Amino acid sequence: MLRRTFIALTTTAALSTSAFAAGHSKDIVDTAVEAGSFTTLVAAVEAAGLVETLKGEGPFTVFAPTDEAFAALPEGTVEGLLADPEALAAILTYHVVPGKVMSTDLSNGMMATTVNGADVTIMTEGGVMVDGANVVTADIEASNGVIHVIDAVILPE
What we know:
Layout: H1 2-16, H2 28-35, H3 39-47, H4 51-54, E1 60-65, H5 67-71, H6 77-82, H7 85-93, E2 96-98, E3 110-113, E4 119-123, E5 129-130, E6 133-142, E7 145-150
Parallel strand pairs: 1-7
Antiparallel strand pairs: 1-2, 3-4, 4-5, 5-6, 6-7
């Protein structure tokens, strides 16, 4: 099972690399913009005033929810957060860990402190998960860190 999950993640990463072809020479924000599947995340980062931070030196590890992940939130949630930059920033910084954490650095039950100050739990059995969100594409390198694509928006308690 673990081998199959690893192969699936590796294949997904390899296939999605073309969407991030020049990602390593671009920062996290530009890499996300170029991918085209993070328009809600990029809009949220802009609304929260975090663009310059995520374009900064870093390194950062970003657990990036897809547009589909944001769309799965209850109706009105995204609009409400976009209208409340402080709450939005708290949620977005919960998706960022200082430093460059690659998938090979992860272990089952690992806790990672986010920029928000709260911890996320990493599980690696049966697939990599961050606070219950599945990592669907791992290790997308950017000039100032790494992006791991997740299938849900994670929320601090």
